[in-house]
Input
Amino acid sequence: MTDLTDLVEPLKAQTNVPGADALADATDADYVLRITNAFWEAYLDRVIPNATYDESAGVVTPDLPRDLQQLVIIYAACNIVYNNMVNVQTLFRAVAGPVEYEVQKAASLQKALLDQLYARKRDLIKELIAENREGSTTVFDNVLARDAAFCYGTSSYVTTWT
Output
């Protein structure tokens, strides 16, 4: 069995630089929720087809090997970075009489990080499918498709690897 709470620290390491906590207000329960959702995304993508999740115990059976645990962490990290990117205020402007103050934050860095995480996720899924399955596998990846449609105007909701 894989206890999803054991993946909290690796997820924090994936989403933070060493010595910093960008999500200091997030609790371990918040991280476990993201990890649980990431497990179900991987399950729906048919990357982890034979696993079950016990909601009351918070464990996945059978035990996930380390490579699948890392893939679940990457799924969760994609979700965290995406939500952080959506919530970034790119422009703040204040005017008080003749005095103006303006700060701009570029979202391009977070977009690049998100693209890198998604590319890594796609590569890992391809490798896992090539190593562990025969024939072709169809993956419905709504997160990537939604982001691609939003960012690039493309909408391929079904991808098939052989």
In short: The chain is about 50% helix and 15% strand. The CA atoms of residues 37 and 90 lie 28 Å apart. The longest strand covers residues 91-96.
